[in-house]
Amino acid sequence: MSLERSFPIKEPALEVPWGISEAGFLSLLRSAEMTWVTPGHYRLRCRVLGGLEHELHFHFRPKRATDKKLAEIELHRPLRRHRAREFNEIQARLERMLGPPSEFAIRC
Fold first, then answer.
1. Which CATH number does the domain housing residue 57 bear?
2. Of 7, 60, 87, 102, which sits 20 to 30 A from 95 (CA to CA)?
3. Considering its fold, how many domains does the chain have in total?
4. Which residues contact 44 (CB under 8 A, 6 or more apart)?
């Protein structure tokens, strides 16, 4: 698995390649319970980052063309009482997968 080439999802078990077409995405997730939100925008409840339950939003652009490509994945978590602890848990999982943040990322 390489996050540079795809976004891994634990449950359902699959990898979504960056830049995949909307048609390819729909074919890839045909067995998953996904929700259409608006044209070029889909929502999927799943487990990622080592098992955390999330709601992912997939955005395809351009919105009206037939050759839409995956442009953005939004990660939404249910509201939690202890937000700082939740943030630290997600940050730690990301650092285990990607390595520590670079000096440039810290300044931005």
1. 3.30.1450
2. 60
3. 1
4. 9, 29, 32, 33, 34, 35, 55, 56, 58
